[in-house]
UniProtKB/TrEMBL annotation:
It comes from Streptomyces capitiformicae. Residues 87-107 are annotated as: Disordered. It comes from the Bacteria. This is Restriction endonuclease.
């Protein structure tokens, strides 16, 4: 856990003590974004992928990865984006990426509590990275429900709706993945209809259910195998 610092809400003036959460690097070392004590927190009025994520380098292996930008919920209802010290730009801007660390057993997945649709996307992005996928970003093509994420070798659908994912939802994801010659994974908060599960089994689509702790639970054989073996990247 990183050291805490005082964060003042620009909307109501309340002061909070905040410490950025740490997430495990692929080498197993906990990594937390370094907070900038000289800069002020800002209110989150709209979201973009670049602003929601920050690139942080692991002090042990040197690997640079994108992690959720530190945020704090003020009691007045304002969401605060906490400043990060010396944060480099998105991965790939300089055309280089650090070498992969030596193979290590995967660290235990550390979930993000889900309170909003944004939290669900964050939880899935972290889980995909834990599985071994790299260069996670918003998907170019939109699906009928939820939010799409893409990475090397996979297209993921995050469905935070209160209705179970349907057969059509699963088929749309699979068809989109087929056009991009990539695998696909579906994450749903409300589960799946029986027809959707049967179709996913036939198509080889991995299905996960997100609980409110932010921990994806596999619900079919393809997902169980993926959770156990990782991406293989």
């Amino acid at each position: 856990m990183s050291e805490s610092m005082a964060v003042r809400c620009p909307a109501c003036g309340r002061e909070h003590q905040y410490a950025a959460p740490a997430y495990p690097c692929a080498c197993g070392t906990p990594v937390a974004p370094p907070l900038d004590r000289r800069a002020a927190a800002v209110s989150v009025t709209h979201r973009t992928w670049d602003e929601d994520w920050v690139t942080v380098r692991c002090g042990s292996c040197g690997r640079a990865d994108q992690w959720p930008h530190p945020e704090l919920d003020c009691s007045c209802g304002t969401v605060l984006r906490v400043p990060v010290a010396g944060a480099p730009g998105p991965l790939g801007e300089d055309g280089a990426e650090t070498a992969e660390p030596p193979a290590n057993p995967r660290a235990t997945f550390r979930p993000v509590t889900i309170r909003t649709a944004h939290d669900a996307v964050t939880a899935v992005a972290l889980y995909l990275r834990w599985l071994g996928y790299r260069d996670i970003r918003r998907a170019d093509q939109r699906q009928p429900n939820g939010i799409g994420l893409a990475a090397r070798g996979v297209l993921a659908q995050v469905d935070p709706s209160v209705s179970p994912a349907s057969l059509r939802d699963v088929e749309c994801l699979w068809l989109t993945a087929m056009t991009e010659s990539t695998g696909c994974v579906y994450f749903s908060l409300a589960g799946y209809t029986d027809n959707a599960r049967d179709r996913a089994d036939g198509l080889g689509v991995s299905l996960f259910v997100l609980d409110l702790t932010g921990t994806p639970q596999p619900v079919n054989g393809a997902a169980t195998e993926l959770a156990a073996a990782g991406s293989g990247a």
